[in-house]
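Sorry to interrupt, but I need a hand with the structure work. I would like you to pick a protein and set down its sequence and fold. Please put the record directly below this note.
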Amino acid sequence: MIDNQLRKCDNNTDNWRRWTYLEIIQWIVGLEDGRFSNYKQILFKKMKLRNMCGEYLMKMEKIDLETFFGINDFGDICDLWQYIKSLINDENGYFNGNNPNKPKVKVNPLELQDSAASASMFAEHEVDSILDDIIKSENERDH
């Protein structure tokens, strides 16, 4: 069912701001010859629930990948975050995550820090509440 919906997607990276959650998922699972395809089901569920769209990619923070979209491998989080930031910052339209001849984009983490004026697509209290719950459960587990 998901695959049928994803096949209909327009993955023209020039139009990423107009993408629905389906195009975002199709783009992600197509990166690096399917490296992130194991997240397809969870991304479908979580992005549909949050009505995710391309314009929200600019409002995301790195922690959103884990907290709200179910990416749990640290390497995957870091690399996917670089791909998202590269997509957003690709002024010349050369981005193509499936192009094996294109060198992997390296992003300086200091340049990616969001300014105080920018905000996540999620309320700060939501993130704080979830982090508090995680810390609480880890403390309970350790005792």
The helical segments are 2-7, 21-30, 40-49, 62-67, 74-89, 109-112, 124-142. The radius of gyration is 16 Å.
